[in-house]
């Protein structure tokens, strides 16, 4: 025991050991490779999110962390303890992870109180009660304590599921699409609330989702996954504004890719005129590229140099999303304030307001 | 890597490996051993059939085998059509329509489940014979004198056997079709109505195709029972393969010849198993749609339509249960003093004890194996269970051959060993004991237990397991604390179905029982064989009566599902 504490103090003095370390794992799903040499690191109190389309392997990664899926290469470490290695794994019940599921997975034959107490059987009855009461109170579900899961609304079930997972004070909370069973309004609300609660209580959490809004609401860092690998690990802000690949740019947010050619160290010539970036592009002149244009990069301006026709409009309340076709034959997405109200077929003038150019090589495979 | 591992809390890869391997072995290893035991009889039949049997194989092919096969095919075709029509029509009427008596019929329709085919055969033989009440009444009405004055169909025929089996086997289809109809998404049905399809079109184009896998399972179960039947075909002198097997074994004294007929029967068995397994896979796809149950839309029937619905439900209950019970009841009253003996009470005890024991063992094994499959999956285990559950489709007579051969070999080997070493004889240890009968019951009804337990477990979301495991429960604890309470209803149903089946089981009991050991079924069979239907009636009625207890429990479960499904209780 002495040696262990010595090791951990040593570590604390140098670099803080991450709470979760996934090192180069590969997993199969139905005999096919689903995860390729994937690594990620989560520090104590951090909330991260794996975001990707269905079938990208994100759930397999989560299951591997929980101990339901074996790894073929690499290893998984929770709190400095190796829990998965090729051909060996610590069973889920011995990993001290909590888990929240899409279908909540509440035990239907147990009351809310009994559900939340499920993971506390090592405690005395009195301690259990204090613990459960505290948890119910924190999740604001005390008044439902004696009810059964089927008597609860979706949002309440969600809270019970969280309370149950957090009651045993797990080292790590894992959430598998926790909000996708909720309706849109509740979903945003719960996302915010859960995020606040996790922050306040300093809970380390890994969530997987296919919904970028969920990911942005909760993740300090978000890993965008495609085909069993993380293609970009970044903050939500950077993922949106500085996507590193075409796939990430396409998957996150709206926008179009405008073809162009590098015309200077930070300049691009396009059919809609020359664009200037605040940063050098690191590409030789004449390189064929494409520029990411987000809808908010296209600004409504009656004096603007670009003439376009409204092809489609989608009213979003405060804003309207327009699909425009310029005289040059280029399709643009534009987000205008609601008072700039045009009908389909109307002529509009716009200009491009891009400070930082996000460019990708054209004809690159992704 | 190595330095990292050594600095962590004693979790070196070898320790990890030991931990995970141990759990893996405990569950799947046990399951594979159990599966292997269940496969043994089938394997023994195959090995034995291709062994030396003199010329009997050739003789069989030349003479009677073709006849056995054709008769069996006709019987299965007839029973298949009969249970399909009766089972599906009653299930649909009872779930989708509202008419007077519907709620009572929901469970009345299960009653024939308590009635073995051979018992109903005895009852109708008495009912329809020349001196029986039906022909007597006809003679009185029409003034006929002798049998030559009129035509009356012979019940002791292939057609009669089809009718008898159809009447008592349709509840398999009814039960499965009914629960499939209940589980269908209301939204889909309503969508169909709004797309302009009437009730009949909705039934034929939506309900029926969706329920097809469930119905196919029900029909295949009924056909397995048909293939298994010995009592009816023996009594009616219909030469199916089972009748042929017993004849060759006991009549011609050739166990090897019997094993060869058994091998032919296994071809049928494999086909039925494939039908059932395939349907189960489809069922899985079809039934994952509905997330929440809503009250089913009901067609309110009045007048002639209500009367028709009433008749559709009343006829099977009347013909499959009430009439035979009345016939047996009358006979029992007349012959009671001769039938009610201390021996009889012993037979009752034997039957109940054997059946309850077999049900408990089969269920425990099924749960263990199904849960280890859920835990570890794995090709070997999947294959093992598939083969092990052949037992249900394997007719009792075939099983008897497959059990007797290895058990006798074991007994002889032990006996020889003991004689050599200690100079004492061990006699019969396995063969000719109650254990052999119990073993046959478990092997034969393991599949039905497996199927039911598996489908109950499948209804429990996998995230439930993951939730329990991450909350600190080991696999076994998860099973006991969280799965068992959730699947309790399904388990009880399963136990009861297995229990009833054991109570009714005749051929394997008949062929494997120890000397002077009788169950109700063998007792009834022996009296009936001697044309002493009156003396057999108390036993027959008792089999039906004991069989009724689980049917009543089953029907109570049905009314409970109705409440949880939120159907209007009006």
* Gross geometry of chain B: globular
**Amount of helix of chain A:** 10-25%
H-E order of chain A: HEEEHEEEEHHHEHEHEEHHEEEEEEEEEE
Q: What is the typical, i.e. mean, pLDDT of chain B?
A: 82
Secondary-structure topology with pairs:
The complex is a heterodimer of chains A (366) and B (570).
Chain A: H1 2-13, E1 20-29, E2 32-42, E3 47-51, H2 58-66, E4 73-78, E5 81-85, E6 88-89, E7 97-100, H3 112-117, H4 125-138, H5 154-166, E8 172-176, H6 184-200, E9 205-209, H7 212-218, E10 221-226, E11 229-234, H8 236-241, H9 246-251, E12 256-264, E13 267-270, E14 273-276, E15 288-293, E16 298-300, E17 306-315, E18 319-326, E19 331-337, E20 347-352, E21 359-361
Parallel strand pairs in A: 3-9, 3-10, 7-8, 8-9
Antiparallel strand pairs in A: 1-2, 1-4, 4-5, 5-6, 10-11, 12-13, 12-15, 13-14, 15-21, 16-20, 17-18, 17-20, 18-19
Chain B: H1 2-7, H2 13-49, H3 56-62, H4 65-96, E1 97-98, H5 102-108, H6 117-128, H7 133-142, H8 158-183, H9 186-194, H10 199-228, H11 231-236, H12 241-251, H13 255-286, E2 299-300, H14 303-339, H15 342-376, H16 379-388, H17 390-393, H18 396-421, H19 434-458, H20 462-470, H21 475-504, H22 507-512, H23 520-529, H24 533-564
Parallel strand pairs in B: 1-2
Helix pairs in contact in B: 2-13, 2-15, 2-16, 2-18, 4-5, 4-8, 4-10, 4-12, 4-14, 6-8, 6-14, 6-24, 8-10, 9-10, 10-13, 12-13, 13-18, 14-24, 15-19, 15-21, 18-19, 19-21, 20-21, 21-24, 23-24
């Amino acid at each position: 025991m002495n040696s262990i504490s010595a090791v951990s103090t040593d570590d604390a003095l140098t670099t803080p050991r991450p709470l979760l370390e996934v090192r180069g794992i590969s997993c199969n799903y139905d005999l096919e490779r689903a995860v390729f040499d994937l690594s990620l690191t989560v520090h104590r109190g951090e909330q991260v999110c794996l975001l990707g389309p269905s079938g990208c392997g994100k759930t397999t990664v989560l299951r591997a962390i929980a101990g339901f899926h074996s790894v073929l290469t690499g290893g998984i470490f929770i709190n400095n303890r190796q829990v998965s290695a090729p051909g060996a794994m610590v069973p889920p019940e011995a990993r001290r992870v909590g888990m929240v599921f899409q279908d909540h997975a509440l035990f239907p034959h147990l009351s809310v109180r009994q559900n939340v107490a499920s993971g506390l059987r090592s405690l005395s009855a009195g301690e259990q009660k204090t613990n459960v009461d505290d948890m119910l109170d924190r999740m604001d579900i005390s008044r439902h304590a004696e009810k059964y899961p089927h008597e609860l609304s979706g949002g309440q079930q969600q809270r019970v599921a969280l309370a149950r997972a957090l009651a045993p004070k797990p080292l790590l909370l894992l959430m598998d699409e926790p909000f996708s069973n909720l309706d849109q309004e509740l979903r945003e609300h719960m996302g915010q609330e859960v995020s606040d609660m996790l922050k306040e209580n300093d809970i380390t959490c890994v969530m997987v989702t296919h919904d970028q809004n969920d990911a942005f609401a909760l993740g300090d860092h978000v890993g965008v996954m495609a085909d069993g690998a993380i293609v970009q690990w970044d903050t939500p802000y950077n993922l949106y504004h500085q996507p590193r690949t075409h796939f990430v740019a396409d998957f996150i947010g709206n926008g179009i890719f405008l073809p162009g050619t590098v015309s200077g160290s930070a300049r691009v010539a396009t059919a809609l005129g020359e664009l200037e970036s605040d940063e050098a592009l690191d590409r030789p002149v004449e390189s064929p590229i494409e520029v990411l244009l987000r809808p908010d990069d296209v600004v409504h301006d009656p004096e603007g140099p670009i003439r376009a026709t409204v092809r489609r409009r989608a009213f979003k309340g405060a804003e309207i999303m327009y699909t425009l076709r310029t005289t040059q034959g280029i399709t643009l997405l534009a987000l205008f304030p609601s008072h700039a109200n045009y009908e389909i077929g109307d002529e509009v003038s716009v200009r491009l307001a891009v400070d930082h150019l996000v460019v990708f090589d054209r004809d690159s495979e992704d | 890597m190595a330095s990292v591992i050594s600095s962590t809390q004693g979790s070196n890869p070898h320790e990890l490996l030991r931990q995970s391997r141990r759990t893996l072995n405990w569950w799947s290893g046990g399951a594979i051993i159990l599966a292997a035991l269940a496969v043994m009889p089938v394997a023994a039949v195959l090995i034995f059939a291709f062994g030396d049997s003199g010329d009997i194989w050739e003789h069989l092919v030349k003479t009677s085998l073709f006849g056995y096969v054709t008769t069996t095919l006709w019987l299965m075709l007839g029973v298949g059509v009969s249970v399909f029509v009766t089972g599906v029509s009653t299930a649909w009427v009872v779930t989708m329509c509202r008419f007077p008596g519907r709620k009572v019929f929901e469970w009345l329709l299960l009653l024939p489940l308590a009635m073995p085919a051979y018992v109903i055969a005895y009852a109708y033989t008495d009912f329809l014979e020349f001196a029986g009440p039906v022909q007597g009444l006809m003679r009185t009405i029409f003034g006929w004198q002798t049998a030559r004055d009129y035509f009356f169909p012979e019940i002791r025929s292939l057609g009669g056997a089809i009718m008898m089996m159809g009447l008592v086997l349709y509840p398999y289809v009814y039960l499965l079709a009914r629960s499939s109809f209940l589980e269908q998404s209301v939204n889909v049905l309503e969508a169909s109505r709004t797309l302009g399809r009437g009730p009949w079109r909705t039934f034929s184009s939506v309900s029926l195709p969706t329920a097809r896998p469930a119905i196919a399972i029900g029909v295949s179960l009924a056909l397995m029972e048909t293939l298994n039947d010995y009592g009816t075909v023996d009594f009616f002198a219909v030469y199916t393969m089972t009748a042929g097997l017993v004849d060759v074994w006991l009549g011609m004294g050739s166990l090897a010849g019997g094993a060869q007929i058994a091998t032919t029967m296994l071809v049928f068995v494999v086909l039925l198993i494939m039908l059932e397994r395939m349907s189960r896979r489809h069922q899985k796809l079809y039934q994952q749609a509905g997330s929440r149950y809503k009250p089913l839309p009901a067609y309110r029937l009045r007048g002639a339509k209500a009367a028709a619905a009433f008749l559709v439900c009343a006829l099977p209950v009347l013909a499959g249960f009430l009439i035979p019970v009345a016939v047996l009841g009358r006979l029992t009253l007349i012959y009671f003093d001769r039938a009610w003996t201390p021996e009889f009470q012993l037979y009752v005890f034997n039957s109940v004890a054997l059946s309850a024991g077999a049900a408990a063992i089969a269920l425990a094994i099924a749960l263990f194996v199904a849960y280890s499959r859920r835990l570890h999956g794995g090709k070997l285990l999947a294959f093992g269970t598939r083969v092990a559950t052949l037992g249900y489709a394997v007719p009792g007579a075939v099983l008897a051959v497959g059990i007797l051969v290895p058990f006798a070999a074991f007994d002889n080997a032990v006996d020889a060993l003991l004689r050599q070493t200690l100079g004492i004889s061990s006699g019969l240890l396995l063969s000719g004991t109650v254990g052999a009968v119990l073993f046959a019951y478990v092997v034969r009804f393991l599949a039905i237990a497996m199927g039911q337990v598996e489908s109950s477990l499948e209804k429990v979301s996998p995230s439930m397991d993951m939730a329990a495991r991450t909350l600190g429960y080991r696999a076994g604890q998860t099973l006991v604390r969280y799965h068992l309470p959730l699947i309790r209803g399904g388990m009880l149903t399963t136990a009861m179905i297995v229990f009833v089946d054991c109570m009714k089981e005749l051929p394997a009991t008949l062929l494997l029982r120890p000397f002077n050991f009788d169950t109700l079924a063998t007792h009834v069979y022996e009296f009936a064989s001697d044309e002493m239907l009156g003396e057999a009636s108390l036993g027959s009625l008792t089999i039906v009566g004991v069989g009724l207890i689980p049917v009543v429990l089953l029907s109570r479960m049905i009314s409970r599902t109705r409440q949880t499904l939120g159907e209007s209780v009006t």
